[in-house]
């Protein structure tokens, strides 16, 4: 006999200020109230967040009168990282680290086998130090479907250290060694807290007589069951923005279309008490993802997270009028809005007061009658401009898009915005995040590198699709509702016949497909305060035994010229793939000075320092100008173009990435925000095309009238900078919609002064024999860091 369908779902969002809860009846999703039976908002409790969660869930259950046994699932928005950790634990995470044999090549072959004796020796050191969490991270471990090296090491560590937590990086994140390692370390550091918090959730469910499955929402908007979340809490810590966008889509878009309209992207503006977070919902219903790498508390990780822009505008933003100029924010009264805002009897003029003075029904309108109407008009105009600017930043084309307003502070937003087709403020907008948690879907993801030598890329992609669908079903999705939300195939540069395939399938949660979890989490001491001792640092050195290269000394092959040798060595490097170095024979100092480009490391250091200083001083808008000054001035380096990547074409041939990017001029409003210190670009308006073969070959400007002009070309350096970070984008990082600044740098005379140099490094070397090289500027030799900072 089939189990009875349980129609109710509970969603909870744990925010920094408030905890929101809703209960939905999935049978009424087409009704006017979208199935929302009851909702509740309560202050987030600290340090024990479960008290606030329990109070919120109890409230919606009491309001709705829903039978406890008819609740299908409880979905909690996130486990906040370090929310009750003492500050010292946040900064001291490195108890010890070591390196052991192992790892894979990019083609999946084994770089070195696991040495069990090494593992046992390191376990003894870990035990001596009293550490209780171990991270195992191997090179290319996410594609290890044959040797299972990380799992092998885990079995050894578990045997030697049965009481420690063990995290394998391949289970935490995907390709990207440093970012995967970072995410695994963060995950290991919050395991105890996650287990204790989820145990608190389950205890609260028992007290509320809820015998249903507990899920948490992940950063990408899909669900994860409680035992998995306790093992991988890092996947859940930043799901709030995703929940808001998913909830906004459910409340504001579902049922709005008659089926004849083409699905389009939607801007979601979540206005809270202090900030407004703006994201983009794709036609798939999931948020547009941020770039490949994101930073969390200063740590770079490679999780899929929504692309967000935030501004200091919220319901509690403080409004000031000085010398006839009205400002709104960025400072805010925050969660003291109900006591400090004028409409609630306070003495601080806030954005909410402005909204009430303009006609909104909140608090006591009589308390803002004395606010000058000019101030009201100017403040509303300022808030409108702020929202229009941040919405425009998120758009990838000038076409107007619909905007969904959610969040408790959405009452301060205007009903119309320039560049927006329509503004929608759905019902229950103040608890859209909790609605999104309740209506989240189940997902399955595949991220793998496969060889295309024996199979076509299409066959590899189809396999990835099938695997993603099966993983979604295994996680609790209804098979008939599963669809593919993302499919991408990326050729790997410098590696022949290797392709990275990413596929993500999502589907509706089966109301009776996954039974409640009865797994018992480990009982950790409530006192998690442990101070790790200063880590002992191991000397890095080569400890391989010396061996005489007798055979090499005796065998001296002969070759007619050096080109044959060079081709053989290059072929080996290309076969190995990834990053490969080749050690050539030593040379003399005189030859280095005569034929080499001098002080290149010093120049790289100086450019890196420019970026670091720009981040520290909040001067990223002029980082290109700072680089120009360091490189040698405007005669040596120039800003070629500023704009947005609107097209990326690429293909792989013999381990090299070939393709072309098209950059479109940025809008005037975005240029004005850059500041008056920006130097004019060599070309403005129109578009810029840059073909590449691992390196950017030339920059061709096409004006609005169709006139074409080459403004830079090899051997001069053409660098495409990410405008937001100031860092140079590599060929694999070119993405549609990225804001970029194109910088041109004059090459060394070693390349340009002789026909031989241009033959090997000019446009003709890349197949463009019809393009005549024209120097960008005058080369200036970089200053030596060694000489500049050497002691007298």
UniProtKB/TrEMBL annotation:
Residues annotated as domain Hydantoinase/oxoprolinase N-terminal? 9-73, 99-160
Q: Which GO terms describe its molecular function?
A: hydrolase activity
Q: Where is the S-Me-THD-like C-terminal domain?
A: 561-776
UniProt domain Hydantoinase A/oxoprolinase: residue ranges: 180-359
**InterPro entries tied to this protein:** ATPase_NBD, Hydant_A_N, Hydantoinase_A, Oxoprolinase-like, S-Me-THD-like_C, S-Me-THD_C_sf, S-Me-THD_N_sf
This protein's name? Hydantoinase/oxoprolinase
